[in-house]
Amino acid sequence: MELPKKVVWITGASSGIGEALAYEFNKKGTHLILSSRRVEELLRVKEGCHNHEETVKVLPLDLSDADELPGKVEEAISLFGSVDMLINNGGISQRAYAADSSMETIRQLMEVNFFGTIALTKAVLPSMIEQKSGHIVVISSVMGKLGTRHRSAYAASKHALHGWFDCLRQEMYQNNIHVTLVCPGFVKTNITVNALTAQGQKYSKMEDAQKKAMSPEEFARKLLPKLAKGKEEIYIGGYEIMAVYVKRFFPGILNKILRRAKVT
Ligand SMILES: NC(=O)c1ccc[n+]([C@@H]2O[C@H](COP(=O)([O-])OP(=O)(O)OC[C@H]3O[C@@H](n4cnc5c(N)ncnc54)[C@H](OP(=O)(O)O)[C@@H]3O)[C@@H](O)[C@H]2O)c1
Questions:
Q1: pTM score, two decimals?
Q2: What distance in angstroms lies between residue 171's CA and the mean position of ligand 1's atoms?
Q3: 20 CA distance to ligand 1 middle (Å)
Q4: DSSP for residue 196
Q5: Options 23, 97, 154, 173, the catalytic residue
Q6: Is 154 a catalytic residue?
Q7: What distance in angstroms lies between residue 139's CA and the mean position of ligand 1's atoms?
Q8: In sequence order, what are the residues at sequence separation of 6 or more whose Cβ sits closer than 8 angstroms to the Cβ of residue 36?
Q9: Which among 17, 149, 243, 254 is most buried, taking Cβ atoms within 10 Å?
Q10: Count of CB atoms within 10 A of residue 27's CB?
Q11: In tens digits, what is the pLDDT along the chain, a chain of 264 residues?
């Protein structure tokens, strides 16, 4: 399997991992569609790409507005004639205890991370089925495989993505549409700065784990070859990735470790 030379659509392309993925795909000469809410930031990322007038388009959207997403898909397809890979990367995190978090905040996390992502994917699928090829990529998290304090709704939204996209992979096999779930560990982005507190305010702090983590550029460099191999699930990060394997084989031990671990 090869990375599409044609059209890759990235959500959450205005910063962090999505921005770094845009530059990495741009180096390979891919046609790109960049989406998120902040148009000025998307235009800045576009400007940072080579040959951007011809190969990069900006398509603003809000993942929390599922009703507008089918229309956005029509627009996206009209930009270059097809979408060959959709990278569902846009998302928000959480820093609050489960017991304190308002239902509104929990719903907001689910709207963006889960419902927005599947609504966009559902709207893209018919065109991929018709062209008999496509690759749907989902940027989940280690939190899609386990849970720690202060991230209950975030972890729930990422776990939900694994359930939905694991089923989709089975259903789409016959249509030559691949599904890849990517689980980053810590990556140095503004994910914790933008995370929601109990009442839905911005947390506004970069955690130490993020400050010391790998850069989004390194993450993107590591991810592309793995996507090209058509892997179904990918883990990229530091020592924290070990937790996925400890959870799989010794879940009780992981629970004991996490109870005592310093988790911010
Ligand atoms: N950094 C990490 O350590 C880490 C670890 C595991 C998983 N992840 C995942 O990686 C993905 C990217 O996050 P990041 O680390 O790059 O953080 P980030 O810099 O905060 O990027 C988040 C992106 O999501 C977009 N976004 C947020 N809400 C949106 C909405 N309602 N509609 C459309 N776009 C929206 C933001 O753009 P706008 O504000 O312009 O809308 C931004 O481009 C997320 O799914 C996150 O869960 C990150």
A1: 0.97
A2: 28
A3: 12
A4: B
A5: 154
A6: yes
A7: 9
A8: 11, 12, 13, 14, 15, 18, 42, 60, 61, 90
A9: 17
A10: 12
A11: 666 668 999 999 999 999 999 999 999 999 999 999 999 999 999 999 999 999 999 999 999 999 999 999 999 999 999 999 999 999 999 999 999 999 999 999 999 999 999 999 999 999 999 999 999 999 999 999 999 999 999 999 999 999 999 999 999 999 999 999 999 999 999 999 999 999 999 999 998 888 999 999 999 999 999 999 999 999 999 999 999 999 999 999 999 999 988 887
The amino acid present at 105, given as its one-letter code, is: T
- Closest ligand 1 atom to the C-alpha of 111? 31
The pocket around ligand 1, CB under 6 angstroms, is made up of: 11-12, 14-18, 36-38, 41, 61-64, 89-93, 112, 139, 141, 184, 186-187, 189-191, 194, 210
User: Rg for the chain (alpha carbons), in Å?
Assistant: 18
From residue 85, give the alpha-carbon distance in Å to each of 76, 82, 262: 12, 9, 38
Name the residue of 145, 150, 181, 187 whose CB sits within 8 Å of the most ligand 1 atoms, as the mutation to test its pocket: 187
Long-range CB contacts (< 8 A, 24+ apart) of 143-148?
144/181, 144/183, 145/183, 145/243, 145/244, 145/247, 146/243, 146/244, 146/247, 146/254, 146/258, 148/258, 148/261, 148/263
